[in-house]
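Q: I'm building a small set of examples for a reading group on sequence design. Run inverse folding on the following structure and report the sequence directly after it, with nothing in between.
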């Protein structure tokens, strides 16, 4: 079931991204030869007009084949060169390239807005002024890798109900604690086993965890971040505004995250275990689905923003790389040699596929 949900999410996000390229190219008078979900070999398809619509065997993305995007003699000087991407003004080429990213951001905005209309989990601290937050609970927002909490089985999204020690029967109930209270409770019981009652989805869960002092601050911790989160439900006009604000916030945070990752990679300090590919996402999709449809909407919006940001990275074969080539051409006042651009994009695509294989391998190793 998780695989099916993941496939549907991927289908929606890939088709929306490629539809952005497709519709802007069509409206700009550019010929579009192919619209495909997945990569070859081809499973089935149908040609409608001049465009072939295909489903391919490798469901790790998709593409539109725009005439002249990878320029050759036919697209530059051939009989249909007037409808070629490469012969259109630079601003039209830029619009076509950016349209996929714009569609992913639009999808994220729509999904988050629908989430707010339905009732979206929201931090009490970041809620709009005057908003009513229902079903508030102290919720785990992240779990550190190899921490006592992770080893005990605690997960992101778990709601903390109570904490109780075995030695002195000290008990802390959710009716009178927040994140700081829990942190202080853990600090005061270093090395002691703490029984923590949780709600995961709609099911009660109980775990036993032993805090330990970290190496930097010498403070007893179990390795979780927490926030008081409740359900925020808004009318349509407020939902659209809050959805737009949240989309912007998530986009900025995603850009910062990728910047830090790339910077670490340049320094040789990047941690591959922090990256997740299709196999890893299947498991996360399953976790999101267990918490409910709104959580799944939020997760899909997050993936959509990630796709948008990834595609804007100025790397050959990505939309950002092609936009960089356009900028270089604009500055130098002439085209980059088609052979150079095509070879660079082919190498870039090969490296991206290799990276996908490496990340997928790490995903599988983590599951074993």
């Amino acid at each position: 079931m998780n695989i099916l949900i993941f496939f549907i999410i991927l289908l929606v996000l890939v088709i929306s991204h490629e539809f952005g390229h497709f519709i802007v190219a069509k409206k700009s008078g550019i010929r579009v030869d192919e619209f495909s979900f997945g990569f070859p070999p081809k499973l089935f398809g149908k040609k409608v007009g001049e465009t072939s619509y295909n489903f391919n065997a490798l469901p790790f993305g998709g593409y539109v084949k725009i005439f002249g995007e990878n320029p050759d003699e036919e697209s530059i000087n051939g009989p249909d060169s007037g409808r070629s991407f490469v012969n259109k003004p630079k601003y039209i080429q830029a619009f076509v390239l950016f349209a996929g990213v714009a569609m992913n951001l639009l999808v994220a905005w729509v999904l988050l807005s629908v989430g707010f209309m339905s009732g979206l989990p929201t931090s009490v601290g970041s809620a709009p002024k005057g908003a009513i937050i229902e079903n508030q609970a102290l919720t785990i927002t992240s779990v550190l890798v190899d921490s006592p909490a992770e080893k005990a089985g605690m997960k992101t999204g778990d709601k903390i109900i109570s904490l109780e020690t075995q030695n002195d029967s000290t008990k802390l109930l959710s009716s009178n604690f927040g994140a700081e209270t829990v942190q202080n409770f853990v600090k005061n019981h270093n090395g002691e086993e703490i029984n923590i009652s949780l709600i995961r989805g709609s099911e009660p869960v109980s775990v036993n965890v032993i805090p330990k002092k970290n190496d930097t601050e010498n403070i007893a911790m179990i390795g979780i971040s927490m926030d008081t989160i409740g359900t925020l439900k808004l009318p349509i006009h407020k939902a659209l505004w809050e959805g737009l604000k949240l989309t912007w916030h998530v986009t900025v945070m995603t850009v910062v995250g990728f910047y830090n990752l790339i910077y670490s990679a340049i320094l040789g300090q990047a941690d591959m275990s922090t990256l997740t590919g299709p196999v890893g996402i299947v498991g996360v999709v399953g976790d999101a689905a267990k918490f409910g449809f709104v959580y799944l909407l939020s997760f899909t919006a997050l993936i959509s923003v990630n796709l948008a940001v990834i595609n804007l990275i100025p790397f050959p074969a990505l939309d950002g790389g092609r936009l960089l080539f356009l900028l270089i051409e604009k500055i130098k006042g002439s085209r980059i040699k088609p052979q150079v651009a095509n070879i660079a994009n082919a190498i870039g695509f090969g490296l991206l596929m290799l990276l996908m294989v490496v990340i997928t391998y790490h995903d599988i190793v983590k599951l074993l």
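The CA atoms of residues 319 and 346 lie 13 Å apart.
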